[in-house]
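Supplementary Data S3. Sequence and structure tokens for construct A.
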Amino acid sequence: MNSAGKVIAWVLSFDDNESVLKFLAHAKKRFADNPGSGLAAERYRRFPSLKRPDSPDNGIVLQIPKKHRPGDHCPGDLRISRDSLAGKIVGRAFGKDGQPLSEIRSQDNYVEDIIEITRSMQEQLLTASGKAIGRFLIPQALAREFVGNAYLGMLDVNPLGGDRVRAELLEESIQLWAQKHDDGQLVISGSSRVSSKNREGIITDTGRKWTHLVDLKWHGFIDLDTKGIREIILTAHGKEKLNWGGPGSRVSPDATRNPVAHLPSGHSLDISSAVRYGIITK
């Protein structure tokens, strides 16, 4: 985009690695020649060989405010429901030597995300804790919030909370137990095992073909008071298997193929590794 917020060029993929640099040079020149409005957006299915018709400018000059108006919500702010508790989850993949994999820019090896503990989840936990005499299962809504965010990779391969139109849930076994203590803390332990795959016969833009299994043991505590959850600290460790691409997919496992020619399809994955996750709220 240029300084006026107009699209310079829209590109889906590239002919080869050199085309990426050519595209950046091309966009830089278009930016210099067209700093304002009136710019038609160039569109490429693949740059530069597969060009689509330009999208003409709509003639609207964007007004970019220096700050949000009173009452406006900033799109960059975290959106959580009123009375919800926000938490953070971090996950790492580990190599055969027992050390965390170093390439943390990749979601295949490292993830960070936000979880939301709603008012309803907290009330369900308070009710269950109040009725229990000893050890009890924490409510499934809360347990699934933990488990449903503990996975490596992109959103498409979420084995529990993903797109059920294009994904098929194969296995769901979640048993997270709480042991009450006099100080208001619940000591958490248990296990989860969830797996999914792409649903057969669904046409997608990436030709995705995948399977994903996450098998974890959970430990930690939840600090309660009469109003709700004050703090959560949980850890999980176990095994994760993620396959993306291969025969029948547009994603080839052949390392010699041109990766930038099929960017929406991603890169081929065949991962089986030890993993650890941590969840914290305050």
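Construct B, processed identically:
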Amino acid sequence: MAEILLVDDEKAVRTTLSIMLQKSGYQVQEADNGQSALDRIKEKFFDLVITDLKMEPLDGIALLRSTKEINPSTEVLVMTAFGTVESGVEAMRLGAYDYIQKPFDKDEFLMVVAKAIERRELMIEVEQLQEELKEKYRFENIVGRSNEMMEVLSMVSKVAKTDSTVLITGESGTGKELIAKAIHLNSRRKNRAFVTINCGALPENLQESELFGHVRGAFTGAIREKRGLFHEANGGTLFLDEIGETALSTQVKLLRFLQDGEIRRIGENDPVHVDVRLIAATNQNLEKGISEGKFREDLYYRLNVIPVMLPPLRKRRDDIPLLINHFLEQYNKQGKALLKTVSPEAMGVLTGYDWPGNVRELENVIERALILSSKSIIQSEDLPAMIRKNHPKQAGDAGSAVPVLAPDQTLEEVEKQYILKTLDRYTWNQKKASELLGISTTTLWRKLKSYGIEPKKAE
């Protein structure tokens, strides 16, 4: 049940609106001025604040600003007097959901409130799914808190519940298959098969048979019937990695499936309908392939319903320390290494390198350092010469400011340290800090509460 804080210095107005809102199923608390309301907002989270504009000593605009600083995800509805449209527009510019002019119609008022609550509930749903994705994959598969990766995960959270076709693009080693799995595991198909195939690993003459199957005697060597991968993935998801490597004849059949949901086994006349969600990936420029006659333009547009582009590691350097700590912890859990930390100098080298092989290359370098070094801390000399040679001078400064795992630290302690350093970096602007951390402002606020830290006012 949504909780609303109603703020107005006129008792009659508060009483009337409170009764209306409670009859509509909302929990309502009242405050007779802006300062009293602000005190309550500091103590309790409200889904919606409905506030009058003209109040003393703290007016509605000031309350709006403070509310958004404390809990940016709280929606705010401003009530204005007749003829003060400019103030209402200013309130929306500062983050209010909407404004409504007094005197207003009861039905109009309740409709605006309902829409504000609906938006808040939608935001909660998106935030929860994003948190599920991040918690599920942060220390298992997908590790990233940079703005670039948060945009990717935000897109994943939106498309996961649909059956739309997705085309994932990105350089080799950026984690395209992991993103495809994230989409599948957060979809309605999560309990059905996730089937993957690397199209580039199959000779052209075997692609159709692997994907669509064949009947006995369909061609020389077809001594028995074969179920294709589309049949194996029925009800689930089929991930076609390196889709740019498919033969033109295979592309025709893929196009037919995307158009009508039907496939036809080699040597069979009757089509069969299958319920399969298709996710494709490539590290190639498919538009270039189209111009060279290697890829069908109509198939490209059918696949590219929802494009997801994975950034290379050099575009998300903030994630490098998180990835390194993740790899170190994984190897320690497996008992493959006793090393538990990276020196600031080595971290500077690692964060300053461009990583043409992306996350896969980074993982290989960390594994190599763990194997070859006999020290308790990975030093810069433990890294390959090529990486040290390309280390920019300024990278050491960036790396020395990044928290890494010390022998006696837990991941929770590192997380707390990283959050506080990020807040200090942005002078406690929670919105900017949460964007860099890749968490919602509500989650940031809750984490600070769990640390027993009172949020500072942004400078």
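The radius of gyration is 28 Å. The first strand starts at residue 3 and ends at 7.
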